[in-house]
Amino acid sequence: MSHYQKPPELYDGLRLHQNENTGGCSPRVLAALAALRADQVGFYPPYAGATSAIATYLGVPADQITLTNGLDEGIMALAVACLRPSPGSAVPEAIVPEPAFEIFRFDTAVAGGRLVQVMPHADFSFPLTEVLAAITPNTRVVFLTNPNNPTGVSMPLDAIRTLAAGVPDGAMVFVDEAYAEFAGESFIQDLPSYPNVVVGRTFSKAFGLAGLRIGCLVGSPDTLDPIRRAIPVYSVNVAAAAAIQAALGDLDHVHEYLRQVSESRELLYQACDRLGLKYWRSRANFVLVCADARTDQLVNGAFARGVYIRNRSTEPGCAGCIRIGTGIVEHTRRCIAVMEEALCAAP
How many angstroms separate the CA atoms of 262 and 265, rounded? Predict the structure, then answer.
């Protein structure tokens, strides 16, 4: 089993390779962190306030929320709860439509499950027929990402409904909605009708809290119960719990970032048209760009100029593709200038 390869720790340039909010968190978050007292740091953290704030934001009862140390912890807990083999039983299977967040594959292997990959369509439209055909009596999890990472392409909510109705009893559909704020849609409102669906959310992207590691799982209490057992106690620290309450109290900050993301995507589309680069219209805070034979020239040229973008060529269906963050407009304009320099420079 291979290991997840974290990108190099590059902090001295413009970080457009990890889908972060390069504008940072709300000033209210910094104020909340500065206001933490010594005794609050010394005690195990309370979670009621953070849970209530998230539940209000997502429009669900508090008992349908489980806090996690980043969404990554929630995905691992779900894999542990659903994909551990039992003696004498068939190996549990996890279906992953590709390309996908690498953690789905790694966590399936760590838990002991069998990975079933569904290869992508050329246009990255969701392969519903192929995913349905991959379901067997041993299917225990279908991992979905909406919008997709690394493509930024959304899947129809009807496809999630169809899969939830098509998996065997005891199986779960997991919907990673890390980029839902940018798409403006969610499956959360459908959860009462589909208790075998769990939605994962993170506050790393739109809210700019990646460094504090705070996310959550959303679902019916009965569905979440076995997953909660696999989450360590007090895994979310007091700083993250305070930060998310402050961040949710300043949605204007988030809305301004969303506005800039929308403008940045359009700027990058226009630049790609000028440069003869193929791209897929995105509903996230990044765009997948196909540079084909110019991929290394673009990635390395940007790196040399202090702008970091991510080569995704090793992902299924993504040969010659680069994922470029599109957040703060000023940063996007800088990236475009660097792309033009890198591709148009004399050899």
Answer: 5
Given the structure tokens 């990058």, which residue do they identify? 268
φ, ψ for residue 292 (rounded to 5)?
Answer: 50, -120
Find the distance separating the first CA and the last CA of the chain, reported in whole Å: 40
- pLDDT single digits (tens) 169-223: 999 999 999 999 999 999 999 999 999 999 999 999 999 999 999 999 999 999 9
Angle CA(165)–CA(171)–CA(176) in degrees, nearest 5? 85
Q: Do the beta carbons of residue 115 and residue 142 sit within 8 Å?
A: no
CB-side neighbour CA atoms (13 Å) of 260: 19
Domain 27-248 in CATH 3.40.640.10? The answer is yes
Q: What is the DSSP track for 44-77?
A: PPP-HHHHHHHHHHHTS-GGGEEEESHHHHHHHH
Q: What's the predicted TM-score (pTM) here?
A: 0.95
Domain residue ranges in the chain: 14-23+252-344, 27-248
Per DSSP, the residues of 251-265 read: HHHHHHHHHHHHHHH
8 Å CB contact between 131 and 144: no
Residue 250 Cα to chain centre, angstroms: 22
The CATH classification number of 14-23+252-344 equals: 3.90.1150.10
51: amino acid identity, one letter: T
